[in-house]
Amino acid sequence: MTAMIPGALRAANLAVPAADVIDPAAAFIASRQFDRPTLVVSRDRVTAQYDALVAGLGEARIHYAVKANPAPEIIRALVLKGARFDAASRGEIELCLSQGATGADISFGNTIKKPADIAYAHAHGITLFAADSEAEIDKLAAHAPGARVYLRVIVENSDADWPLSRKFGCARSAMLPLMDYARGAGVDVAGLSFHVGSQTRNPASWNPVLDQIAALWTAGREAGHDLRVLNLGGGFPATYEDEVMGAARYAAEVMDAVTERFGTVPYIMAEPGRGLVAEAGHIVAEVLLVSRKSADDLHRWVYLDIGMFSGLAETMGEAIRYRIQTPHDGGETGACILAGPSCDSADILYEQRPINLPTALACGDRVVIRNCGAYTSSYSSVGFNGFPPLDVVVI
Ligand SMILES: Cc1ncc(COP(=O)(O)O)c(C=O)c1O
C-alpha cells in the first residue's frame, strides 16, 4: 500500500455514508490513496463482532475458521479475546501458535490431512481433529494417538449462497459404521460436525440440518459412543447485497434450535469465518475501463483492477454479490457487466445477473467493495498475469 497525504479531494469524491463514521476501515480508505487493490480490515470491528457472536452463542465456544482471513493481526486480536481456532493446515496451525494460541486452543478441522501435519499438530498439543473416512481415522490412530475426533457428516444445504456439500463429510447412512470402525482402531469418537453451508442467511435453514444431526447423535449414543463434542461449523452470514440479521440474534436463534434438539452437550463449538470478519473490511479498487462491444451493445462493460483471481473468487457462479460504492452514488444508474483485469475470460464477476452501477462511472474512478473481510486475501493469486496480489492493511 502507498499511504499518501490524506486526499481531501478524493475523499470528498467517495460519497461516504454517515454510517461510515463508525466504520474504521471505510474512514481509513476515505483518508488515503492506494496504488493497488487493497483490503483494509478493522481489528476493532472484528472483536466487536466476536463479542456479538459470543453473546448469541452462549456456552458454545468459537473456533475462528482461520481460512476466512489469516492476517496475523486478526489472529492475535482474537487470541487476546480468548477465541479458539479451526485450522485447515499446518500453515494455519503455525500461524495461530505464532500469535499466542496454544495447541489446546486449536482444532485441526480439515478432513483431508497430510500424515506429517497430523504428527506436527499432535506434537504441538492439538488433541481435537476432524475425520470423515476410515483412511483418515487410520492416519489419526497412527500419528495422533489419544486424539479426540469429531466425524463430519454430509448435510443438504441448499439454502446457502456458498454451499460446502459433497466434498466433505461422510454420508449419514455410513456414519454408524464409521463410528464403530474408529472405536475398533482405538480412536476416541468424541462427537459430530457438519457445515450448514456458508452464507446461510436465514437461521431457520439450520433446523432441518440439525434434525439430521440430532438423529445421528442419538443413534451414536445408543450404540455406545460417548459423543460429547458438537461442532456446528460455520454458515453465519454477512451483509452483502442483502442486509442480514445481526450476529447476536442470529447466533441466539441457532443456539435455541440446538438446545431444543440436543439438550445439554459438554462441548459445543462454532467455527464462524465469514460471519466474524467479512463486515470488518472493505476493498478499495479502481475502474480501468468502461466500454461497449458495439454501437448497439445493450451492455456496458466495466473492468476493475481486481477480479476473480486477485481476491474476488467468491463471485464464482455469481454466488456472493458484493455492494460496490462509487463516487457517483445517488446519480443515474444502469445495468453493466462487471469484470476483472486479467486475460482469462473466466474473470467476469457479474454477467448472468448484471449489476447496476452509475452511468457516470469512468476510468480512474475509485470504487469501494464493501464487506470483503472474508475469503478475499486468502483466495488472491500470487500474481496471475502479473497483477499484484491483494494488499492487506489491518488497522
Ligand atoms: C470446516 C469449516 N469450518 C468453518 C468454516 C467457515 O465457514 P463460514 O465462513 O461459513 O463461517 C469452513 C469454511 O470453509 C470450514 O470448511
TrEMBL record:
GO terms classed as biological process: putrescine biosynthetic process from arginine, via ornithine
Organism domain of life: Bacteria
Catalytic activity: L-ornithine + H(+) = putrescine + CO2
E.C. no: 4.1.1.17
Annotated pathway: Amine and polyamine biosynthesis; putrescine biosynthesis via L-ornithine pathway; putrescine from L-ornithine: step 1/1
Required cofactor(s): pyridoxal 5'-phosphate
Active site (UniProt): 343
Name of the top EC class for this enzyme: lyase
Modified residues (N6-(pyridoxal phosphate)lysine): 67
Keywords, ordered alphabetically: Lyase, Pyridoxal phosphate
Cellular component GO terms, alphabetical: cytoplasm
Keyword Transferase annotated: no
Classification via Pfam families: Orn_Arg_deC_N
A GO term for molecular function: ornithine decarboxylase activity
UniProt domain Orn/DAP/Arg decarboxylase 2 N-terminal: residue ranges: 44-278
Gene3D superfamilies on file: Alanine racemase, Lyase, Ornithine Decarboxylase, Chain A, domain 1
Keyword Protein biosynthesis: no
Protein family (similarity comment): Belongs to the Orn/Lys/Arg decarboxylase class-II family.
Name the UniProt record assigns to this protein: ornithine decarboxylase
Species: Roseovarius nanhaiticus
